[in-house]
Design goal:
7-stranded mixed beta sheet; 7 strands; globular; alpha/beta
Length: 228
């Protein structure tokens, strides 16, 4: 994957299809290290709307301290697309983490983050203190091939009391089992009194479909919770 070549939708489609068949965490990290060169071109080609949609929902429900002072944790930050869209909403204090050094290098070049950390969201705790962030976001990474549903508990732990936790996932046919597991974990955490649901936004045109079965756009969902 070379950043010098002119990218096409078919090229982006081939890359994105392949990410979901990486068999191990190490394979995924290596894949994302290489994809960092063309990542932003490719997601633009598939009209990937999740960062803007998530930032819009956080912005609509955020209250309290000035936005510029609110600490935002961007989990699976990639090249920094979420921070870019959140900055347009008035937020300025970003801490990012990702499993890929290639992605982190791109995020570092953006100049948006006060701190960037290498981390894999899964069985291990995130390398951040509890209750540290006014907003915690994970956009695009929640899927069966990447992150177990139970790992969203770490997002809640990182948020301060009253803080917002924003998550997204695709809701096309290939991801429905994972979506059900994710929503089950969210409901269990509600029942445990860890957070309350603020908003769930279903979007029919989330991004252009890239599987052989997909035609047109696939749907997705933005979830917003407040830590209790």
């Amino acid at each position: 994957m070379s950043s010098a070549e002119t990218r096409t939708f078919e090229m982006a489609k081939d890359v994105i299809q392949s990410v979901h068949v990486q068999s191990s965490v190490a394979d995924q990290i290596h894949f994302y290290d290489r994809w960092a060169q063309t990542y932003e071109q490719d997601v633009e080609l598939i009209e990937y709307r999740a960062p803007a949609l998530a930032a819009g929902r956080v912005s609509a429900h955020f209250s309290g301290e000035p936005r510029a002072a609110a600490a935002v944790l961007d989990v699976a930050c990639g090249t920094g697309l979420v921070a870019k869209t959140m900055k347009r909403e008035g937020f300025q204090h970003f801490v990012g983490m990702d499993c890929s050094e290639g992605m982190l290098q791109s995020a570092r070049r953006s100049g948006l983050y006060r701190e960037l950390k290498m981390a894999v969201l899964g069985d291990q705790p995130l390398p951040v203190p509890s209750g540290e962030f006014k907003v915690v976001m994970i956009v695009g990474a929640l899927s069966a091939s990447h992150i177990p549903a139970k790992a969203i508990r770490e997002l809640c732990r990182a948020a301060e009391q009253g803080g917002l936790v924003c998550m997204t996932t695709r809701t096309n046919r290939d991801n429905l089992d994972y979506k059900a597991a994710l929503e089950g974990e969210m409901k269990q955490m509600e029942d445990e009194g860890l957070w309350r649901r603020v908003d769930v936004t279903h979007v029919t045109e989330w991004e252009r479909g890239v599987t052989d079965q997909a035609t047109g756009y696939i749907p997705g969902c933005v979830y917003l919770f407040q830590k209790l």
